[in-house]
Structure formats: C-alpha cells, structure tokens
Amino acid sequence: MAKKSLDREYVWLQCTETGDMNYRTEIRVKGGILEKVKAGFQKFSPRLRRHTLHKIKRK
C-alpha cells in the first residue's frame, strides 16, 4: 500500500469576483508555496460563464 504524502494538502480555489469556491485541488506545502500558486489561477467560473482569477482559500 502506498504511503500518503504528508507534504501535500487540499485547498479550495475561490473566485475573486463572485466569491464562489468552484474548485478543490491539492498543493505541495512542504518547502513553502510557490509564488505563481499564491498569485492564483485563471479558471472557469460557471456563474459568470467566463475565466476569472481564482485564489487559494483554506477552509
């Protein structure tokens, strides 16, 4: 059985325009979070029906 990696955690990606948490993804936290990950991702927002900036939100 494979060992679960402890240096990763699940985070939500929250739309900066609507505030909806549309995506859940796994990021590597060991060694710090990369700057490009902190900046956010361009993801599709179903409510606005276009791509918007989504930032990391921890529950």
Task: Explain what this protein looks like in three dimensions.
- The N and C termini lie far apart (29 Å).
- A four-stranded antiparallel beta sheet has the order 2-1-4-3.
- It is mainly beta and 59 residues long.
- The chain has one helix and four strands, in the order ββαββ.
- The chain has one domain: Rubrerythrin, domain 2 (Single Sheet).
- It is 8% helix and 49% strand.
State the main characteristics.
4-stranded antiparallel beta sheet, Rubrerythrin, domain 2, single chain
Topology:
Layout: E1 8-15, E2 21-28, H1 35-39, E3 41-45, E4 50-57
Antiparallel strand pairs: 1-2, 1-4, 3-4
Please indicate the count of domains: 1
Rg to the nearest angstrom?
13 Å
**How do the strands line up in the largest sheet?**
2-1-4-3
Give the SSE string: EEHEE
Tell me which CATH architecture applies here: Single Sheet
Biggest pleated sheet: 4 strands, antiparallel
- DSSP, total strands: 4
Return the structural class.
mainly beta
Taking pLDDT < 50 over at least 5 consecutive residues as the criterion, the unreliable ranges are none
By CATH, the superfamily comes out as Ribosomal protein L33
- Report the mean per-residue pLDDT as an integer: 90
Looking at the structure, what is the overall shape?
Answer: elongated
CATH top level?
A: Mainly Beta
CATH fold-level label: Rubrerythrin, domain 2
User: How helix-rich are the residues, as a percent range?
Assistant: under 10%
> Terminal Cα separation, in Å?
29 Å
Question: How large is the count of helical segments?
Answer: 1
Percent range for β-strand residues: over 45%
